Protein: OTU domain-containing protein
Amino acid sequence: MGKLLCDSSSAAVAIEGPSPPPLQLLTWPAPAPPEQTPAPTPAWTSVWALDDQQRRRLLRIWERGVAWKPPRPSCPEDEEKDGDDKDAADADTGAGAVFRLDHAGEVESDGNCLFTAVRKAAAAKAEPRELRHRVVRRFEAVYAAAAAEGSGDRDAVDAAVRHLYAPDLKAGWGVHVVQEVKLLAPKALRPDLDAAVQELVDIGIQREIAAETIYKDRCIAVNDGDSWAKYMAISGSAEDEHDIITLQYTEEGLLTIDENRDGRAAAFGDDIAIECLATEFKREVYVVQAHGADAMVDEDNCVFFLPHRPRGEICDAPIFLFMKGTAWCGAGADHYEPLIATVLPHVTPDKAAVVL
Structure:
C-alpha cells in the first residue's frame, strides 16, 4: 500500500501564514417590552356632586358588578332568533348576567332629563320628545283599559297623581318643608288669565294672591290620569298645548308662584312615566339612587336600586339610570343621568357587589 508522506517543514510554513480576520458576532436588537393595556378608569372618579361615601360605594359596585337574573323565562320573540343572536338573548334574559355600570355623562337639566337619559342608556333611536309622547300614549292605553275593566288600577293611579301634583296641604309637613301644586294653563288662554289677574290687582288684591286665585279657579289641576297625560306631554317647546304653573307652599301658606311666562318648563319624569318606559322597551328600569350625609345612612346602604318593571313580558337586560338624592323632595325635582351596562364575563353572581 502507498504511504501518505507529510513534509513537516512545509506544514510549518503554511501554519505561519497570515491569519484570517476574526469572526464578527451577529447581534439582534433587544425586543421591545410588550405593550400593557392600561386599566380602565371608572367614570365615577369624575362625576361631580358626589360625597366621598357615595363615590367609594359606587366604585366598589363598578369593580364587582351588579348581578341580575330575569324574573321570568325569556321573551317569546327570542324563540325566533338563531345562532349567535339566540345565544346572546339567552345570556341576557335566561341565565342572567353580572353588569358593570359606567356613568355615561351629564344630560341637560331642562325637564326632559329622564327621556334624554333613557335614550342614551337604552341606545334608542327615538328623540327624547318622541319618547315622551310614546310614554303618554302607552299610559293612555293602559288607563283606558283599566276604566273598561272596572279594575282598581285607575283609582290607584289617580291617588298617586294627586299625591305627587295636588297634595293635601293640610298634611305632609312632617316630611316636606315645601310642597308643590301643579296646574296647566292652555297657551291660548294666557292673555285672558293675565287680564283676570290684573282685574283683581286693580281692586287692591295683592298680585300673588290674585294670581293664585285665578290660576286655581281657571287652570287644570293635575289630579288624575287624564290630567297627568296632558301634563307629561309638556316638553317645554312652542308646540305644547299647555304651560305648567307651579304653586309652592310652606306650612304657613303660599311661598311663591312660578308662572312660566316663557313656556319653557317641562314636566319632569316620575315613577309613572318610568313604568311606562319599561313597558315600552319591555325591559326593567332600575334607578340607581345615591344618598349621602343628608339621608344619614351608612356607606353600604347609601346606594340602592329602585326597580320599575314593565306591564307584561321582559325581553332584554335592564336599563339603568342614576339619580343623586338630596334632602329636597319636591315633586318632579329629581335629575336622571344615563348609565351604560356592560357584561363582566368572569364574575359570578355570588361575587357581585349587588344582587338585584
Observations:
- The CA atoms of residues 46 and 103 lie 9 Å apart.
